[in-house]
Structure formats: structure tokens, C-alpha cells
Amino acid sequence: MIGWILAALIAASAQPLPARPAAPPREVSADHRPARLEILLDAKDYEALAETIRDVSRQDDLMSDLDWLRAKMLEGRSAFVTMLYSRLLWVAAGGLPEHERGLMRQTAAMTTLYAYGAIRIDGTRCGDLSAPSRRTEQLLTWNPEIWPFIRSLSPQDREQLLTVAVAVERRTAARRDSAGDVDFLCRYGLEETSHNMSRGSAREVPTPRGGIGRTIEVTGDGSYRPSETPESERQPRRAALRASLAADLANLVGAMTAPPPAPGPGRQ
What we know:
Layout: H1 4-12, H2 34-42, H3 46-54, H4 59-75, H5 79-93, H6 98-122, H7 130-140, H8 146-152, H9 155-179, H10 182-185, H11 190-199, E1 201-205, E2 215-219, H12 231-243, H13 245-257
Antiparallel strand pairs: 1-2
Helix pairs in contact: 1-9, 4-5, 5-6, 6-7, 6-8, 6-9, 6-12, 9-13
């Protein structure tokens, strides 16, 4: 059985969200007030937004952040908002009784699947396709616990997650197609690296533990702007990805939740 959050998202795919039960007014800290979070998102200050959400500690702030992130996701804002929402849902679920925890984590899993589809579809805007590919890789490792959790669900619950993820993508498609997500999806790819190497500076830094060879840090001069594909190019690619989204998400779930292979002869 799905929880009220997930049920509300199903309803949202076709109609306005149902009203919630009345709750006492919240005392939200200044840093977590929706107006301040909106300023950070509009300014594309993703680092400050992530730090604010990550550092939430008060219950009223937590609930306010969850409401705000959910609303921004359903408006079709940056995929980064959805990633933050998924992570915060997962963290918030940790202190709940088992049944409620499972329901909230189903919602976190669904938002991860929706973010995957949104990144792939919206990434068609990027002239450098290596950039959204990096965001996909980031998403798949964003919360590794998501995938074992999805594997533990019944086939019916997994199918429900896919259905809702596709419905939310459909609901948010028009806004995302119009506004794009260039500053999040189309940065830090090969194009930007090449631009910064020719116009910025490079220096050797310590190689991370476990790394191999030299590590060079490239710093740009701030002049890079992501290139974008023409609408005539990206529209048919978006349409094709949208048409195959349900199947693509099912394949992703199958690949990410497959149990590890049994040890072969002579292996332990």
C-alpha cells in the first residue's frame, strides 16, 4: 500500500493536489523559509541550497523544506531539487515507525526514478552530452541504499513507483521543456573542461586516496556558457525518450536491483 505522499503525487499527475489535514502553524527558521530557498534556487546557488537542506535539524524546518521541495519538483524546476527531495525524504524516514518509514522511502525511490527520466529528457538541450551523463552518474550513486530498498519491494509496489514517476514527468514536461535546466545539467562536461583549460588555469593537486597518476585541477575564468542544441534537434529526441520512459525506467530498476551473481566454482 502506498502512503499519502505518494498518493498525492499520483493525484497531482492529473489534477490539483488534494488539501492536507489542518496542522498547527510552523515556526520555521529564517534560513529554511520558502522565500529564502526560492532566492537560492532562482540564483542557481545550488551549493548553498544543498548545504541549507543538508543541515536541517528542527522538525518544523524539516517539514517546511519537504513541502517546498515537493512543490518545486511538481512545478518542474531543476532536477537538483528532486535529488535533494529524494535524499531528505530518505533521511526523514529514518526516525519513523517501520510502516511509515517504508512508505516515505517509496516516495524517495519514486523521486529518484523521476529525476533519472528528467535528466535524460532535459539533457537533450545540452550541446555537450557528456554533461548530463555526469549528472546521471551522480544520481545513480546519490543514495546507494535506494536500490536495495527497491529490490525488497513487491512487484506491484515497484510497478506503482514506475507509474507515478512517469506521471510526474508528464505533469512537469511543459515547464521543463520551456525553461530548461542548463545551469545544472549542462555544466562540468568535456566542453567546459576544454574551455577552462584554454582560458583558465591548471595546477597539480594531491591525487585522492586510491587514485592513480597525477590529478590536475582546472579553474576557469568564469566565461564559460553551456552550448545548447536547437529546438528543432532536441524536440524529436525528447519525444523519443518520453515515449520510451516507462520501459527505460523498468530497465534501470532491473539493472540496479539485480542481485549479485552467485560465486562460481573456486570463488568465495
